């Protein structure tokens, strides 16, 4: 996902589905995607801060270019009803009943220390955070909300033969005064099971 330069009230809900045991496999979905094919789409999350609001400390809601509103696993339920302001994140870990791998997989997100503009100016990635939700779900949150830290954050542990997902809504803290420009940076979501 590419972030450019959230504050919705956090709803701590997610979807968690049991999936059939089978040969070992991980499945990760962030933003637009397809269920059973490799997808190289990189969705953008961005905000334009009005001049009068710069460095005011008033958090700025971010928008996305995602169009993915429905789950890619299971029944096609609308998990993210407003994809223009949400990114759908889903992860599945499958293994055989004989236990052909670890009992769980780990979902992480990694960010650089800073976003940069064309002039080389920087803006701390820690200015960007996210809340999580899955409207209508009664399942407790299984993918964490947080703030990028210029390193790797663990978002969830995915038990064997389970699929989890929720929506991430991003915001820019707007508590620093950056040099003028468009700042870019890329975060990487990873699902791994050694």
Write the layout of secondary structure elements.
Layout: E1 2-4, E2 13-18, E3 25-30, E4 44-46, E5 60-61, E6 63-64, E7 87-94, E8 104-110, E9 114-116, E10 122-124, E11 128-133, E12 139-140, E13 146-147, E14 152-159, E15 162-172, E16 184-186, E17 188-192
Parallel strand pairs: 1-4
Antiparallel strand pairs: 1-16, 2-12, 2-15, 3-7, 4-6, 5-15, 7-15, 8-14, 8-17, 9-10, 11-13, 11-15
Helix run count:
0
| SS-derived structural category | mainly beta
Distance between the termini: 24 Å
Give the overall shape, derived from the CA principal axes. elongated
Number of strands: 17
N-to-C series of helices and strands = EEEEEEEEEEEEEEEEE
Biggest sheet overview = 8 strands, antiparallel
What proportion of the residues is helical, as a percent range? under 10%
Chain-averaged pLDDT: 86
Radius of gyration (Å): 17 Å
Quaternary structure classification:
single chain
Count of all domains? 1
Beta-strand share of residues: 35-45%
Residue stretches low in confidence (pLDDT < 50, at least 5 long) are: 1-13
């Amino acid at each position: 996902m590419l972030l450019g330069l959230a504050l919705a009230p956090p709803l701590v809900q997610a979807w968690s589905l049991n999936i059939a045991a089978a040969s070992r496999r991980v499945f990760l979905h962030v933003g637009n995607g397809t269920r059973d094919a490799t997808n190289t789409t990189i969705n953008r999350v961005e905000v334009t801060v009005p001049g009068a609001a710069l460095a005011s400390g008033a958090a700025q809601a971010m928008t996305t270019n995602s169009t993915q509103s429905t789950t890619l696993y299971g029944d096609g339920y609308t998990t993210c009803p407003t994809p223009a302001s949400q990114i759908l994140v889903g992860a599945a870990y499958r293994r055989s009943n004989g236990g052909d791998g670890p009992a769980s997989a780990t979902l992480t997100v990694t960010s650089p220390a800073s976003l940069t503009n064309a002039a080389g100016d920087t803006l701390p990635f820690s200015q960007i955070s996210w809340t999580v939700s899955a409207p209508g779900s009664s399942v407790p949150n299984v993918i964490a909300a947080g703030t990028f830290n210029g390193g790797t954050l663990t978002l969830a542990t995915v038990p064997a033969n389970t699929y989890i997902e929720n929506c991430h809504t991003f915001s820019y803290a707007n508590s620093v005064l950056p040099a003028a420009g468009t700042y870019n940076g890329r975060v990487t979501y990873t699902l791994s099971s050694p």
